[in-house]
């Protein structure tokens, strides 16, 4: 049963959605928000099978179909498999949310080539491969929504987060360019660039650091995964067809 009410509570009824990295945090919140709007969900994960199944069960409580699919999306074959599994189980996907990613802090001088490559593979190569695999289905139907998760550091750059900032800045440029390429096919491509959100990515920060960030944020708090999911849900709607190539940054006013 859908426990949340919206003015139009099932605007995505019958749509098939893929959310990458949906076993926890922002990805889980996005998957649940799309399910509550009526979409069938493919919950992608890399390692956390039990957590992914928890997301699946939460989606099914919204009276939609949902499955978990394991795939390392930096591998072309596995990215293609994710799209194929969607088609086999539900039909062609209309919504792709590239949420999966990794973060690491540290000096650029201390960053190894292997760490740099790992960051680019997870945050930039994987969305490219997923988009490349899903686009033939969307072009065939002349409809689609691709939503890529970036970060405020992709917009402004973050000290001690050079590889992360570079990868998230890259996904912004990727989204803007792809939006122009596929717009004539009825496909929108947008970026969501969150600010500081209470997820595992902030687990390394002390309570004092978290309080300081909240104080520096004009709305006076950190973000929640649901704050980000509500923006993704909006961009996934059929009625958002005139919004493409944009970067929307739910960050509480931290970056304007």
UniProtKB/TrEMBL annotation:
One of the Pfam families matching this protein, by short name: adh_short_C2
Top-level lineage group: Bacteria
GO molecular function, one term: oxidoreductase activity
GO term, biological process aspect, one: monocarboxylic acid metabolic process
Swiss-Prot/TrEMBL keywords: Oxidoreductase
Classification via InterPro entries: NAD(P)-bd_dom_sf, Sc_DH/Rdtase_CS, SDR, SDR_fam
Record family assignment: Belongs to the short-chain dehydrogenases/reductases (SDR) family.
PANTHER family recorded: 3-OXOACYL-(ACYL-CARRIER-PROTEIN) REDUCTASE (PTHR42879), 3-OXOACYL-[ACYL-CARRIER-PROTEIN] REDUCTASE FABG (PTHR42879:SF2)
The protein's name in its UniProt record: 3-oxoacyl-ACP reductase
Native organism: Tumebacillus algifaecis
